[in-house]
Design brief:
The complex is a heterodimer.
Chain A lengths: L1 E6 L2 E5 L20 H10 L8 E5 L3 E5 L3 E7 L5 E2 L2 E2 L5 E4 L4 E3 L9 E6 L33 E2 L8 H4 L2 E3 L13 E8 L10 H9 L2 E2 L8 E3 L21 E6 L4 E5 L2 E5 L6 E10 L4 H6 L6 E6 L2 H14 L5 E3 L1
Parallel strand pairs in A: 13-20
Antiparallel strand pairs in A: 1-4, 1-11, 2-3, 3-10, 4-9, 5-8, 5-10, 6-7, 6-9, 12-21, 13-19, 14-20, 15-18, 16-19, 17-18, 17-19
Chain B lengths: L3 E4 L4 E4 L15 E2 L4 E7 L2 E6 L4 E6 L5 E3 L4 E6 L5
Antiparallel strand pairs in B: 1-8, 2-4, 2-7, 3-6, 4-5, 6-8
The chains are: A alpha+beta, B mainly beta.
Chain lengths: 330, 84
């Protein structure tokens, strides 16, 4: 059992890939915003890469261990301390009963960090996933973010503690996050509703050239970018509505850049599953983790166009990278 | 006269007022108690209160209303109440 002493700003139970296969029923997958850090944090402690762990947004978590467990913290630096001693990120440690793990506020670039514990967090699965979907109050612990006094049940670890503590992710695989006011390069595919039918080729050139500012009003549902004066290929949305961004309602891919009127919004893991605006690009699945580490109100995005084949290849390489072979003994 | 600062733990947009037409939470010269709200940080479509961890007199704000702030940024300077 893991006892929450301070829930922090927004801490939720998540698993990977979340509640998939239910977009047609209106369920977003949820799951970690940065699945790269999340999955590596699980591999470090000997869990399957998708086992349930905690997503800590913007800091402030404190948890007490009641069992001897391996744990790891991967992602943004929040000055993580075990019993007051600073610990390294991207490394597994041993926790003993009574040990206190505390995270402070963000110490530098990045926005989210992940805590995994050997055995995983065993809240009851809902529709086959433990991921918390906050807008629907589904999954995780009672469908909500964590607060002081919560007690999280843990599963039985599948491997000996001694085998999984004091391991590190290889240094060349630990991502460096762009700082405040800096630009993230994010791979994205063109369409499904791009040029020439919905936008002009100049619009799409501008889309892939512009440095888009991430609005402070961005969260797990959507990442709002700056309003842009598009040319548009059409004068109206026809049967879909009056504005050329309107179309007849259709399904939205996770990671789609949804252009609502003149404002692009990236639909994140808790995003809407359908609607009546065009999506002029989709963030490559292997690049979705970058969204999780951008700082609302501060980060900029440069979309780099990739083909569908390149996006599939990036994902295959990422899945291969997140493995035991890329850990080393501390 | 010991001056100290209150920091924001969060990045976001800093607001000195609870709503656009309201008076500021605190003004320069006010004496505030520990736990007093000194402003809001808006991020991820929610507002979070910034509170004073100790009481004192408000000397000056280091951040403008609606200015973007970083985590750990100093927001306001306090001094011991009654010492000017």
């Amino acid at each position: 059992m893991l006892e929450v002493r301070n829930g922090g700003f927004e801490t939720t139970v998540q698993d990977y890939p979340g509640r998939i296969g239910m977009l047609s029923l209106g369920f977003a997958p949820a799951g970690p915003m940065d699945d790269y850090a999340f999955r590596f944090a699980n591999v470090l402690v000997g869990n399957p890469p998708g086992a349930a762990g905690l997503e800590i947004t913007a800091g402030g978590l404190a948890v007490a261990f009641h069992d001897e467990r391996a744990f790891a913290v991967c992602g943004a630096d929040m000055d993580a301390r075990l019993n007051g001693q600073r610990i390294e990120l991207w490394r597994s440690y041993r926790a003993r009963p009574g040990d206190l793990l505390e995270l402070d506020y963000l110490q530098g670039p990045g926005f989210r960090t992940y805590l995994t514990v050997s055995g995983g967090i065993e809240v009851p699965p809902v529709l086959d996933s433990r991921a918390t979907y906050l807008p629907g109050s589904v999954g995780g612990l009672d469908g909500r973010k964590l607060q002081a006094g919560d007690r999280l049940p843990l599963g039985e670890p599948s491997v000996d503690l001694g085998r999984v503590i004091d391991r590190r992710v290889r240094a060349n695989l630990v991502p460096g996050y762009p700082g405040y006011n800096e630009v993230w390069e994010v791979e994205a595919t063109r369409g499904p509703q791009a040029d020439p039918d919905y936008m002009t080729s100049e619009d799409m050139d501008a889309f892939f050239a512009h440095h888009w500012k991430l609005d402070a009003a961005s969260n797990r549902t959507g990442y709002r970018l700056d309003i842009y004066r598009w040319q548009w290929a059409r004068t109206s949305g026809g049967a879909g509505g009056g504005h050329p961004s309107n179309i007849i309602d259709n399904g939205y891919p996770v990671g789609a850049v949804n252009v609502c009127g003149d404002q692009p919004i990236i639909l994140c893991v808790d995003g809407p599953t359908l609607g009546g605006f065009i999506c002029n690009a989709v963030v490559a699945k292997a690049a979705m983790w970058k969204l999780g580490q951008m700082v609302p109100g501060w980060s900029y995005i440069h979309f780099k166009e990739v083909s569908l084949e390149q996006a599939i290849d990036l994902l295959a390489r990422q899945d291969t990278t997140i493995s035991e072979e890329n850990l080393e003994r501390s | 006269m010991a001056e100290r600062t209150i920091r924001s733990p969060l990045p976001g947009i800093f607001y000195r007022r609870p709503s656009p037409d309201a008076e500021p939470f605190v003004k320069e010269g006010d004496v505030i108690q520990p736990g007093a709200v000194i402003g809001l940080v808006g991020v991820m479509k929610t507002f979070h209160e910034i509170t004073a961890d100790s009481g004192g007199r408000v000397v000056r704000f280091l951040v403008e209303n609606e200015e973007p702030i970083r985590p750990g940024q100093e927001i306001v300077v306090l001094t011991d109440a009654g010492t000017e």
